[in-house]
Design goal:
Blueprint (H helix, E strand, L loop, with lengths): L4 E2 L1 H14 L4 H16 L10 H9 L10 E6 L2 E5 L5 H19 L1 E9 L6 H8 L3 E7 L21 E5 L7 E5 L6 H10 L8 E3 L4 E2 L8 E3 L5 H14 L24 E9 L6 H16 L15 H13 L1 E2 L2 H14 L8
Parallel strand pairs: 3-4
Antiparallel strand pairs: 1-12, 2-3, 4-11, 5-6, 5-11, 6-7, 8-9, 8-10
Helix pairs in contact: 1-2, 4-5
């Protein structure tokens, strides 16, 4: 069977038009379309176009503000707190990154948090924004549903609470760490279910502590933290920084947006930008990053290991391949999107 490859611009335009038909202003729909397509481009399939239908469902239920007044409600020279006014998380985080970059140019380092935001896609999208300006970017978020209990407990009071860090390099690909504080992000569980695949052992367990492999039974168990109790601790700290500090939802206040389309989620996120020029010569820093990357990659490997990878390298390769060849979407997802397009009265991905 021939794979139906979708080009970036084709996907971006499709999402943009769909979002416009759902009621977003054209300028905002363009931002959301670009960021969602970029998520797919870099291989973050659990946070890309697979999210379009859930976003549409929430929009139609009135759970999102289509014309938010995203504004600063607390500010000092090196920080700001944004009220996202229940707008699309992509819009809130795009604005947060812009403010963090601007402030970091003046202060060297800047931190911008958000409250009353929403799901914004993969963390690395926003950590990469300062990186494009010769800055180190860090991003933290409270996940949009609790899938993790405290270590040794059963009540799901924590989420995947992701963290991303993007560090510029010179000739080498940038070092970009993008990870959930659970072994797998819940978006990956959704992607497995979409493709009809089983989950690897270690992603989830049921309430009796037994491995849970069927992603369609995910509601019967919970995700496992990375590194055991250390991952639980990291999830808690990220949630405190991205949620509690910003006056956003955390713990039992987190709204499960997989099952509730109307309640305001009050999602919390935070982004930090570190201006390399505040610490010295930018080119020298990038050269030192290149040197370290090459040392790590060239280090002695264990038997059977073909290559040592740096964080973000595989995503970098996926991005390059997808830019050149187009992206492959699961047939079931393509069909769902084309059915949705017909409903909206717009061209489907397979008809363009």
């Amino acid at each position: 069977m021939t794979e139906n490859r979708i080009k970036f611009e084709q996907l971006r335009q499709f999402i943009t038009v769909a979002m416009t038909r759902l009621g977003l202003p054209e300028t905002d729909a363009t931002i959301v379309g670009r960021l969602m397509a970029e998520a797919e481009l870099q291989g973050s399939d659990g946070h890309g176009v697979i999210r379009l239908l859930p976003y549409a469902r929430r929009i139609r239920a009135g759970g999102l503000n289509l014309r938010p007044n995203i504004k600063i409600i607390q500010e000092r020279p090196g920080m700001a707190l944004l009220d996202g006014d229940n707008g699309m998380g992509h819009l809130v985080m795009q604005r947060a990154a812009e403010i963090a970059i601007e402030k970091a140019r003046n202060c060297g380092i800047a931190w911008v948090g958000s409250q009353f935001s929403n799901h914004a896609g993969p963390a690395s999208l926003y950590a990469r924004m300062p990186m494009a300006q010769d800055m180190i970017g860090l991003y933290f978020a409270v996940g949009n549903a609790n899938h993790l209990p405290p270590w040794g407990g059963l009540d799901m009071l924590l989420s995947t609470n992701p963290i991303a860090v993007a560090v510029p390099a010179g000739e080498e690909p940038p070092v970009v760490l993008d990870m959930a504080t659970t072994v797998a992000a819940y978006g990956k569980v959704k992607a497995k279910a979409q493709r009809g695949e089983m989950m690897p052992a270690g992603w989830m367990i049921d309430r009796l502590g037994q491995p849970l492999l069927d992603p369609k039974r995910a509601d019967e168990g919970f995700l496992m933290p990375i590194g055991g109790y250390k991952g639980y601790g990291l999830s808690l700290i990220v949630g405190l920084l991205a949620g509690t500090l910003n006056g956003a939802a955390m713990g039992s206040q987190v709204v499960d947006f997989n099952h509730d389309d109307t309640t305001v989620t009050n999602t919390g996120q935070a982004i930090m930008a570190i201006d390399l020029s505040a610490f010295g010569d930018v080119a020298s820093f990038k050269a030192r990053v290149d040197q370290l990357v090459r040392e790590l990659r060239a280090s002695e490997r264990m038997p059977g290991v073909e290559r040592i990878w740096l964080p973000g390298e595989q995503s970098h390769e996926k991005r390059q391949n997808n830019e050149r060849d187009g992206m492959v979407l699961p047939p079931v997802l393509l069909q769902q999107l084309d059915t949705f397009a017909l409903e909206l009265g717009i061209p489907g991905l397979q008809s363009t």
